[in-house]
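I hope you will forgive my troubling you with a question about protein structure. You will find the record immediately after this paragraph.
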Amino acid sequence: MTDAILVLNAGSSSIKFSLFACPQSAQPLTLIYKGAMTGIGTDAKFKATDAQGNILSEQNLGSAHHNETLSVLLDWVEGHGDGMNIVAAGHRVVHGGGVYSVPVQVSPEVFKRLEEFIPLAPLHQPHNLAPIQVLNTLKPGILQVVCFDTAFHTTQPPVAQAFALPRAISAQGIKRYGFHGLSYEYIAQSMPEYIGNVPEKVVVAHLGNGVSMAALKNGKSIATTLGFTALDGLPMGTRSGSVDPGVLLHLLNTGMDVKQLGFMLYNQSGLLGVSGISNDMQVLLDSDDPHAKEAIDLFVYRINRELASLAATMGGLDALIFTAGIGQHAAPVRAQVCELARWLGIELDAAANEKHAARISTSDSKVSVWVIPTDEEKMIAQHTLKLLQP
């Protein structure tokens, strides 16, 4: 059997997984399997593919919950092909509070502390933690590691994290934490491979169904668009992004309750809310509905406002990097962003952009522009391996 690291990204009704073979000697981590369990608790389904995306298994699991779906996954992994021996599990956990700036091994004390952060991320944290307890039962004794979306942003200066609220409120942990940190960390470590070095002043645009941007100075986060929650900043697939707090007070004062307001902001807004059509960027790009164009234009406009703001925090800009689903695949969106940012010294190579090349700016562009795929699961596996083989 081959020793392997299991990476889990759990939500309320789904668990995405990846399995990496532990390297022998100086070999890199190798992705072997990936997949997901969806519809957990209602109409659960299990799907596994190889690293190239070829389907290896699909199963209907009925009303199975987290423990049952994870049991199916473990049985499949250990019984498929020559079998793989899971020696460690790495988990994506949204919130590390102001406590954890690096990945850590799970212990009873660590787990208890992570539960204390549930009020900071009630829609994510409980579901991120659930598989840890299940694996303690199904695979007792294996190393479990938690990797935080907030950790990469702990390098931000206090002024970048602060809200202008009464100090007593800030003392309760109400501040800008930032998220998508595992994605930004992966991009930061990938810059030498793509660019040849780590430019001093970089803005990374993580444009997926969840959207954020971050200013990286010498590879370290100094500012980001996401704040106390993953609802802040830019419009997203179904999330509103930043809204004047007065609008929220107005809606509460005119009949909307907190639950309705939360559902609207998280599930009915963003690209979906503005277009009235879809949260899928490709669907909007293919549509001739003027509301689809309005949603895209607003998305691009807000990106450019944040790009200018983030560049200002660094006193300039050397490189812009696009990543995640929209950033990696939506050439028209990249083109619109770069056109509006020409004042920063960006000159787009239209042909390279259409081909989704790694570098999409011209050779004489004062600011280089790149498309770099992100891999949060591999980042988690790398951290887990370090704690497995210190």
Observations:
- The domain at 2-148 is CATH 3.30.420.40 (Nucleotidyltransferase; domain 5).
- The chain has a mean pLDDT of 94.
- The chain has two domains: 2-148, 195-376.
- The radius of gyration is 21 Å.
